[in-house]
Amino acid sequence: MKIAPNKVVVMHYAVSDSEDTLIDSSYDHSPLAIIHGTGYLIPGLEDALIDHVVGDKFEVEVPSDKAYGERHDGFVQTIAKEMFAEIEDLAVGSQLRATTDEGEQTVIVIDVTDDEITVDGNHPLAGIDLKFDVEILEIRDATEDELAHGHVHGEGGCGHNH
Question: CB burial class (10 A; 0-12, 13-18, 19+) of residue 8?
Fold first, then answer.
């Protein structure tokens, strides 16, 4: 069976940046199980999986525009610190939920002064070319329930109320 839309794919992956710095890996814990074609994966990786079979091990280079997009300077904003008065321990690296014109999004604090904080709404991997090492462990048809919910169910279903 080959990977195609609506197939469940169970895979191990390791992702690195262009300097070969490891960002994340499933090899030291559970493999990733996804339904192909549901948009869970970044587009460049999802496209690269098509037609692979169980046992395939391969490397995929994904440019930033097919990963988490380019960085946008407009997503960096400086805000008066009193807007965040209720948050304790506000420090560089803190992640906050912010309401924007596009809805809720996570922003990361990148600078704190006495009066202001600067937040960055870019994805932490925006503007970064990525490299994936992938190993395909299992391919199967998704069940009707999985397709309806848009994600893979483990043993005993997915735990939400239907």
Answer: buried
The per-residue pLDDT for range 16-59, each reduced to its tens digit, is 999 999 999 999 999 999 999 999 999 999 999 999 999 999 99
The pair phi, psi for residue 104, each rounded to 5°, is -70, 140
Do the beta carbons of residue 102 and residue 95 sit within 8 Å? no
Pairing status of strand 76-80 against strand 32-35: unpaired
Q: Quick one: DSSP state of residue 115?
A: S
C-alpha pair distances (Å), 158 with each of 31, 51, 137, 153, 162? 17, 27, 21, 5, 10
Q: pTM (2 decimals)?
A: 0.80
> 69 near 130, Cβ under 8 Å?
no
Within the chain, where are the H helices? Answer: 43-49, 144-149
